UniProtKB/TrEMBL annotation:
GO cellular component, one term: uniplex complex
Transmembrane spans: none
Keyword Nucleotide-binding: no
Record keywords, A-Z: Calcium, Membrane, Metal-binding, Mitochondrion, Mitochondrion inner membrane, Repeat, Transit peptide
Name of this chain's protein: EF-hand domain-containing protein
Pfam families from the UniProt entry: EF-hand_8
């Protein structure tokens, strides 16, 4: 027994030393010391101290709420309507949000009544599909935040991904989408869990964004009564028309309303929304190398836009036809575009791209840097960046501190 008592005493001393050497932070040690000793106050005897084991409660204290995302800030900035205390975009607001970096809001947001919303939905349900749909609807429509995210996703989808997008909506696999499935998809895009609902209740879906409100997209896809089914061909045409409408609007914006766009205006469009460390060098290249008086047609511009929606396939093609991490020449670039999209870019467009992004004048591009710039361009400045704020730093400190504490005591209770 004496031997086992010595062993236990040695083990306790070892654990105490190990715990003290591995500093786990003032807060953790303080809580253990404060709770590790229990004072017993007895009226009939002296005060005694009893050892008391303490286990840290496995709870995570909630810190301050995370800051709103860039997409949420952009949505709130451009949304011009309020209904039931929730902000909404109109179709015009959405077009402006993907074309402009900022909006100069001269008027307050408009607070809508139910009568006005019902009138908007009738307009949307009667709208004809086409490449001017959003411009035709204008301010007679409502777009919620999750629908805004859905539309942004459509703008960056290659045509080969249209059927995949439809399959994601077609939850039960019956080759058409109803209103209920569309609402569920909005929950997935918004990364929220749907609220519990009664069985068979197809209309009682709600989110924090007020998505229980009938919106323009729902009225256009499913009719004002929500009973219409959305077929794949209709959905594909909607995606194609939306991309074409935005491309046309951007072309008109940078061509100043002309039928052709100057090459320097095309370079300005390329660098719009980008924030790379070499941006100044790109702008200098544009001023020095691109000749004046040469233009790019809308068809050439549209072909390049379709290419930017296939950047992942393009990056893979580049890896297949060139050495790893090596700059690529114009011939390799042209071939990679052909492989990725099945189409070719015009000489005007290719020459403008190379003259803008070729930093050392060797007629080659660093494809990784070029793809980074183009992703900023495609996502219109809304690419999610890693967060390096103070709250994230302290979360990391806390996580590593607790990990060190667990290693110190071997995952057991406190040795005190």
């Amino acid at each position: 027994m004496a031997t086992w008592g010595s062993v236990r005493l040695g083990l306790r001393i070892f654990l105490r030393r190990t715990w003290s050497v591995r500093r786990v932070g003032a807060a953790a040690v303080g809580s253990v010391v404060a709770g590790g000793l229990l004072l017993r106050n007895d009226h009939h005897g002296p005060r005694t101290v009893w050892p008391h084991a303490v286990c840290a409660e496995d709870t995570e204290t909630e810190g301050p709420p995370p800051p709103p995302s860039t997409r949420r800030l952009r949505f709130n900035q451009f949304a011009s309507m309020i209904y039931e205390d929730e902000p909404y975009m109109t179709a015009r607001d959405f077009l402006f949000s993907v074309m402009l970096e900022n909006v100069d809001r001269k008027l307050h947001k408009r607070v809508l009544t139910k009568k006005e919303v019902d009138k908007m939905l009738i307009t949307a349900s009667r709208a004809q599909p086409g490449k001017t749909l959003f411009r035709t609807i204008g301010d007679s429509g409502l777009i919620s935040y999750t629908e805004y995210l859905f539309l942004l996703t459509i703008l960056t989808k290659p045509h080969t991904g249209f059927h995949i997008a439809f399959k994601m909506l077609d939850i039960d696999g019956n080759e058409h989408v109803d209103k209920r499935e569309f609402q569920k998809m909005k929950y997935i895009i918004g990364k929220r869990k749907p609220k519990p609902q009664a069985e068979g209740d197809a209309e009682n879906l709600a989110t924090e964004d007020g998505d229980e409100v009938n919106t323009t997209l729902q009225a256009f896809f499913f009719g004002s009564d929500g009973r219409k089914k959305l077929q794949y061909q209709e959905f594909r045409r909607f995606m194609e028309d939306l991309q074409a409408e935005v491309h046309e609007m951007e072309f008109m914006q940078f061509s100043r309303g002309m039928d052709t766009m100057r090459r320097e205006d095309f370079a300005e469009w390329l660098l719009h929304y980008t924030d790379e460390e070499n941006n100044e060098a790109y702008w200098e290249n544009m001023r020095k190398r691109i000749p004046t008086g040469q233009s790019i047609t809308f068809e050439e511009f549209k072909a390049f836009c379709l290419f930017t929606n296939n950047l992942d396939d393009f990056a893979y093609s580049v890896k297949m036809i060139s050495e790893a991490n090596q700059p690529i020449g114009m011939a390799q670039f042209r071939r990679a575009v052909k492989i990725a999209t099945g189409n070719e870019l015009s000489d005007n467009v290719l020459d403008t791209v190379f003259k803008t992004f070729d930093l050392d004048g060797d007629n080659c591009l660093s494809h990784k840097e070029f793809i980074g710039v183009m992703k900023d361009r495609v996502l219109r400045g809304l690419r999610v960046q890693p967060q390096y704020g103070l709250p994230d730093f302290w979360k990391c400190v806390k996580r590593e501190t607790l990990k060190g504490a667990q290693e110190a005591i071997g995952g057991a209770r406190s040795p005190f």
